[in-house]
Amino acid sequence: MKYPGGVKVKDNNYIEYGNRGMSLEEDINKANEYYRLINRAIIYKKPTPIQATKVVYNKGKGKLIAEGYFKTPSTTDYNGLYRGKYIDFEAKETKHKNYFPLTSIHTHQIEHIKKIIEHGGITFLIIRFSSLGKTFLVKGEDFITYLTNKPKSIPISFFNEYAKEIEESYNPRLKYLEVIDKLYFGGKDHETN
Length: 193
What we know:
The strands form 4 sheets. A 6-stranded mixed beta sheet has the order 3-6-7-9-10-12, sandwiched between helices. It has 5 helices and 12 strands. The protein is α+β, with helices and mostly antiparallel strands. The chain is globular. The longest helix is centred in the first third of the chain and has 14 residues, at about 25-35.
């Protein structure tokens, strides 16, 4: 049986949350749009720095990049301001149920996260386990500490213990600022600052 939003019930004990029509990036973009609309935060997706080497003109669509390369390695996916603090974070999805592969995070991104911590900013990762229908927020500090043993992946048990699951809703799609309030502002929401 199919239900709205792609949630499928296979039997009375099992609900499949896969393919709900939204990727993690789309959910975050919608949440950020909502947060900007209600003037709660200013957070944007960072553009990928691409150097075009060949451009073609397509009637009706304008210029299209036919060939290009990445000018510089990208850092993290999102940045902005919340409650007077700089925010910078990476968002990743995995289909694995038991672990998050660290091949998804590059060395220059890890170094960038360390620099944000060093300069007093708020940095974190939002990791979605799409096959489980769970999205977690892990503080950059906890992520960096875990990396000291040079693992190849992070088990789901780490997320269950050290990360916070992000609640999903209609608006915002992902209530990640509520998790930020708990982790970085002592549980006080933005209105009781």
